[in-house]
Every structure is written in C-alpha cells, then in structure tokens.
C-alpha cells in the first residue's frame, strides 16, 4: 500500500515535533539537575564556614583564661619564700626588708610593703619630702609552726605548710604638714591598700 503525499508530510512533522519535545525535556532535566547541584554546593560551603567560625570562636574562648593567667603580676618576697598576686590598685607595689628583734629578743626579718602611688600621697602630706620608712601600708612577719592568736603577732594573713605570715597596720603617718585634706588622703589610701593586699594575700603561694 502506497502513502499519499499528505501522509508523508504528516510523518515528517511528527518526527520534528517528537525531536523538539525530547530536546525540551532534556534541557529541563539538565537545568533542574544543575540548579540542585549549585544549591547543594552553596549549603555545604555555608555549613563549612559556620563550623570553621565556631571552631575559631571556641579556640579564642579557650585561650582567654590562659591569657588572663599570663598577665597576672606577682610581688615576690624572696625573704619569706612567697609570692602574692596583685590586684589592679597594687600593680606598683614594692617592699623593703629590715632585720630586727621581736619581743623575745629573737632576730626577725620584717617586710614593709608600700607602693609608688602611696609615695605620692606621702610627699603631698609631708611638704614634698619622703623618707625610706614613710609610706608603708602593712608590715609583715613570718613565724614557723601553726598560727595561734597572740599579742606578739599581727593578724593572720595566711597559713602555709610549716609557717604562717602575719600582717600589722603601720603606726602613725609620715605627714608633717597642716594640710588636713592631704593627711586624710594619705590615711584613706593606706586603709584601701591594706585591705586590697590582705585580700590578695589569700591567694599567695610558696615559691618553689
């Protein structure tokens, strides 16, 4: 059986339409696949960035306490074999050691703690003069054994293994001027530094 001219033309058109349809379907499939692939890559990149950022933050957080520890300043008192961590208002603390005798006639080494800041207050209330013994806000003593309250010692600062350290408030002031404001400034500063040092000394440790 022979096909007519119209039948042949119709078959060619059907073939072209089928080819166009297949091409469009293929293009849609490729477009959808490519779009999904890019979305997955974007999500993976964002997750990786978040994880890296979290790890970096965690690393910074864990290193913060270490940095704080490294910046602690100590007052090392070699005569007593102890070191004291200093708070902010005592960063310029200093001391001098003097040898004397106690009430029983025994030789003792006493430590007088002061600061450069307190030196300034001492000069202000003494017409600009400053003597070596002028500006101390606490006197330390060291005894062997275990602390027992006694009039021979000051107040207990800390009990160590085999010895203890005591502290006594200084007697009098170096002030010689009649400037009441300067005198009050010195007395108040002594009280403040004494309180801070007493608190800091609770965290003192023996020098190995």
Explain what this protein looks like in three dimensions:
This protein has 208 residues and is an alpha+beta fold. It has helices at residues 5-70, 116-124, 180-201; strands spanning 74-77, 82-85, 93-101, 107-115, 138-144, 155-159, 163-168, 205-206. Strands 3-4-5-7-6 form a 5-stranded antiparallel sheet. A 3-stranded antiparallel sheet has the order 1-2-8, with no helix packed on it. Helix 2 packs antiparallel against helix 3 (180-201). The radius of gyration is 41 Å and the shape is elongated.
Mean pLDDT: 80
Number of strands: 8
Question: Strand-and-helix sequence, N→C?
Answer: HEEEEHEEEHE
Give the low-pLDDT segments: 1-6
The coarse silhouette is: elongated
* Rg, nearest Å: 41 Å
Q: Helical region count?
A: 3
Task: Describe the strand arrangement of the main beta sheet, using strand numbers.
Answer: 3-4-5-7-6
Strand content: 15-25%
Main sheet characteristics: 5 strands, antiparallel
Helix share bin: 40-55%
Task: Provide tags for this entry.
208 residues, alpha+beta, 3-stranded antiparallel β-sheet, 3 helices, disordered N terminus
Topology:
Blueprint: H1 5-70, E1 74-77, E2 82-85, E3 93-101, E4 107-115, H2 116-124, E5 138-144, E6 155-159, E7 163-168, H3 180-201, E8 205-206
Antiparallel strand pairs: 1-2, 2-8, 3-4, 4-5, 5-7, 6-7
Brief overview:
The protein is an alpha+beta fold and about 210 residues long.
